């Protein structure tokens, strides 16, 4: 038997079932067909190495066996006698880390069970998960699982919006509702979290002597498919199931997409974006991506919250926007503090967009995510005047003339913006609502104004 197969079989025996010394020793004994004296010490070393951590990948267990000196000595001594007598037929069981034991996730312990849970044929499941990235290699959009939109940023870099097609989106929604929504987010995470919002993100920093704002660069594509699969293993799913769940929630952008746009956005920007999005990553536009970004950033949030507490500061995060605030003592050391934050982010696999880093003291406008936070939460004067002008022009010239971005439901869009202003500054919001109620909407389109 080839060595790679031998180690893989032993790894499967160790990974299956509960990670206790007695049960793992019994499984290994059944696999080898003999109760070797060195089996129990080997299992004890295995549990000591991997207990309390994310469920290990099979290749990590194989490497552990190859590096275990005592096991290699026993194998060399009994080379002619050690062989696989019984192939393991038992499926790997759910084995969450202690922190995930109370999440009450659906038990899915095999690839077949995953296909049944998602109401898919096995071939359809493998095609949608696309672990080999075959769809991205085909220059045939009908066979790809996503629609793509390239958006230029103010900095010149490019953002890729990846919207899953209906069938994959339904699968992702089931994963979101039944798995990801049961995972508690970090208290500092306020983006895409139920009962939290941009207001709860800004509120802890209102009226503070100094506010530090930092921005993460290429937030969603920073989360690679391997990191997503590792989360599902942390949640307790067997390796084969975790890999498929990770594949369903990640994607690889086809290289042909960028060749068509090189002349429109510049070759340097195209090459930079292609390098980022050509690796399996979390797609911005999938329903599962915001929740996965929050859970995969949990350790980063823990470290940054601990760093902030150590200097008496507050920390919150809204997607890729990081905010810290503190008193005069924090203000004296804020430059050094920002360097420590950048170092932690680098260790966690993120990079800082230094152009957007702002140290805002009390004497200047302290704004986070477009909200002013100096004395109380308020909207910026420019945003208020802009919306007021749009509403006024809707009265004078008709709402159709102001729908420059062709919103399919322009009335609802404006009403939502007015409601947002009301939630931040009720008095200003009521003034805008009074203007909004004077708009005459054409009866033929009801609530929808299209242009």
Question: Topology, please?
Answer:
Blueprint (H helix, E strand, L loop, with lengths): L2 H13 L5 H12 L6 H12 L7 H10 L1 H9 L33 H7 L4 H8 L4 H4 L8 E7 L5 E7 L1 H13 L19 H5 L7 E6 L3 H4 L2 H10 L4 H10 L7 H4 L2 H4 L1 H11 L11 H8 L1 H13 L3 E5 L2 E6 L1 H5 L1 H14 L10 E4 L5 E2 L2 E2 L5 E2 L1 H17 L12 H15 L1 H11 L15
Antiparallel strand pairs: 1-2, 3-5, 3-6, 4-5, 7-8, 8-9
Helix pairs in contact: 1-2, 1-4, 2-3, 7-13, 12-13, 18-20, 21-23, 22-23
Task: Report on the architecture of this protein.
The protein has helices spanning about 5-15, 20-30, 40-50, 60-65, 70-75, 110-115, 120-130, 135, 165-180, 200, 220, 225-235, 240-250, 255-260, 260-265, 265-275, 290-295, 300-310, 330, 335-345, 380-395, 410-425, 425-435, and strands spanning about 145-150, 160-165, 210-215, 315-320, 320-325, 360, 365-370, 370, 380. With about 450 residues, it is of the alpha+beta class. Helix 1 packs antiparallel against helix 2, helix 1 packs across helix 4 and helix 22 runs antiparallel to helix 23 (about 425-435). It contains 23 helices and 9 strands. Strands 4-5-3-6 form a 4-stranded antiparallel beta sheet. It has a 3-stranded antiparallel beta sheet with strand order 7-8-9. A two-stranded antiparallel sheet has the order 1-2. It is globular, with a radius of gyration of 27 Å.
**Annotation field: number of helices:** 23
Strand order of the largest sheet: 4-5-3-6
Mean model confidence by pLDDT: 89
Poorly predicted sequence stretches spanning 5 or more consecutive residues: 445-451
Number of strands: 9
């Amino acid at each position: 038997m080839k060595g790679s197969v031998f180690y893989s079989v032993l790894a499967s025996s160790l990974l299956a079932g509960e990670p206790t010394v007695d049960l793992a020793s019994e499984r290994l004994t059944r696999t080898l067909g003999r109760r070797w004296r060195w089996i129990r010490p080997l299992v004890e070393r295995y549990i000591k190495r991997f207990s309390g951590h994310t469920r290990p990948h099979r290749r990590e267990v194989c490497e552990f066996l190859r590096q275990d000196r005592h096991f290699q000595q026993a194998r060399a001594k009994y080379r002619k006698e050690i062989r696989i007598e019984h192939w393991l037929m038992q499926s790997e069981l759910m084995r969450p880390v202690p922190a995930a034991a109370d999440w009450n996730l659906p038990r899915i312990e095999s690839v077949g069970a995953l296909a049944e849970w998602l109401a898919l044929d096995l071939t359809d499941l493998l095609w949608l998960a696309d672990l080999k990235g075959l769809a991205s290699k085909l220059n045939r959009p009908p066979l790809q699982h996503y629609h793509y939109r390239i958006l230029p940023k103010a900095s010149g870099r490019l953002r890729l919006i990846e919207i899953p097609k209906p069938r994959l989106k339904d699968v992702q929604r089931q994963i979101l509702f039944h798995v990801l929504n049961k995972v508690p987010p970090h208290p500092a995470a306020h983006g895409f979290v139920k009962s939290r919002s941009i207001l709860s993100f800004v509120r802890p920093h209102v009226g503070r002597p100094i506010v530090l704002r930092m921005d993460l660069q290429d937030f969603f594509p920073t989360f690679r498919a391997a990191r997503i699969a590792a989360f599902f293993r942390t949640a307790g799913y067997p390796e084969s199931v975790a890999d498929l769940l990770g594949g369903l929630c990640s994607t690889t952008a086809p290289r042909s997409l960028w060749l068509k746009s090189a002349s429109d956005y510049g070759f340097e920007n195209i090459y930079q974006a292609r390098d980022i999005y050509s690796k399996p990553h979390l797609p911005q536009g999938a329903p599962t991506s915001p929740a996965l970004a929050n859970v995969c950033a949990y350790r980063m949030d823990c470290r940054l919250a601990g760093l902030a507490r150590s200097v008496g500061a507050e920390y919150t995060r809204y997607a890729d926007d990081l905010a810290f605030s503190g008193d005069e003592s924090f203000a004296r050391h804020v430059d050094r503090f920002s360097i420590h934050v950048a170092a932690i982010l680098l260790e966690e696999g993120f990079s800082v967009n230094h152009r957007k880093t702002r140290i805002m003291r009390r004497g200047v406008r302290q704004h986070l995510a477009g909200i002013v936070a100096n004395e109380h939460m308020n909207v910026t004067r420019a945003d208020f005047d802009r919306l007021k002008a749009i509403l006024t022009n809707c009265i004078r010239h008709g709402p159709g003339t102001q729908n420059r971005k062709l919103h399919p439901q322009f009335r609802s869009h404006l009403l939502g913006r007015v409601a947002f202003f009301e939630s931040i500054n009720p008095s200003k919001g009521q003034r805008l609502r009074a203007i909004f109620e004077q708009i005459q909407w054409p009866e033929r389109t009801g609530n929808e104004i299209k242009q």
